[in-house]
Structures are given as structure tokens and as C-alpha cells.
């Protein structure tokens, strides 16, 4: 089982220009104080950015792999559905940068910038 299946992350839209994911936050995703663990935002951001970045590559020659991620946690989250939207900021020959925003209803929970390297395989 991979992490996407383990966390039950659903892909709602997958194109080279936009990715939309959803995930239901449950008690097992919380840290000991009853709030969503911040690592969940990072997992969702890198997942969305990676899926989108790979849509811009020839999968027989390259794969996009994470270089770094910078996440800002804007609001605490307890339980409920998250909506994740990722869009490319720059699609380069070697590096792609994606911006990822995570919402619970209309309230933004976090924002991430993800840089990925287009690795030859």
C-alpha cells in the first residue's frame, strides 16, 4: 500500500496546469493535542505538486522528484474534508515550482511552494 492509498487521498482533477485533491481528516491524522498534524499539509502539497509536475514530462524518460518544500500553516484544523489545489509557477527544463493551497470549506489552512527536479530515468 502506498501513502496515497493509506491516507485515502482522492484525485479530483489531474492536468499539466492544475491538480485538485481531497482528503478527509480523521482522528488518526491528529497530533496529541487534537489538531491535524502539520505533516499532513506537507504530504498533500508534495503529492499534488508531484502528480502535476509529472504530467508535464515524458514518463518514459523523466520523473519529477521533490527538491524542497516550504509550507506555511495558516489555521489549525481538527476534522473534516480538505481540498487541495496545485498550480505550476514555473515549468522549467530541469526544475518545476508549484504553489499548493489547502482549504477546509472556504478557510485556507496552509500554503506551500514545492520545487521538483525533472530526473532522467
From TrEMBL:
Identification of the protein by name: Thioesterase domain-containing protein
UniProt KW keywords: Hydrolase
NCBIfam families xrefs: unchar_dom_1
Signal peptide, first to last residue: none
Coiled-coil positions: none
PANTHER family, per database record: 1,4-DIHYDROXY-2-NAPHTHOYL-COA THIOESTERASE 1
Originating species: Fructilactobacillus lindneri DSM 20690 = JCM 11027
UniProt entry tagged with the keyword Hydrolase: yes
Amino acid at each position: 500500500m502506498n501513502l496515497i492509498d493509506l491516507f485515502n487521498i482522492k484525485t479530483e482533477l489531474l492536468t499539466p496546469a492544475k491538480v485538485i485533491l481531497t482528503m478527509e481528516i480523521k482522528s488518526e491524522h491528529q497530533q496529541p493535542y487534537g489538531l491535524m498534524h502539520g505533516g499532513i499539509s506537507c504530504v498533500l502539497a508534495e503529492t499534488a505538486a508531484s502528480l502535476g509536475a509529472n504530467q508535464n514530462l515524458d514518463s518514459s524518460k523523466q520523473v519529477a522528484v521533490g527538491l524542497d518544500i516550504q509550507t506555511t500553516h495558516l489555521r489549525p484544523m481538527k476534522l473534516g474534508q480538505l481540498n487541495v489545489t496545485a498550480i505550476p509557477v514555473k515549468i522549467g527544463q530541469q526544475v518545476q515550482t508549484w504553489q499548493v493551497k489547502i482549504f477546509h470549506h472556504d478557510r485556507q489552512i496552509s500554503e506551500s511552494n514545492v520545487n521538483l527536479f525533472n530526473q532522467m530515468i
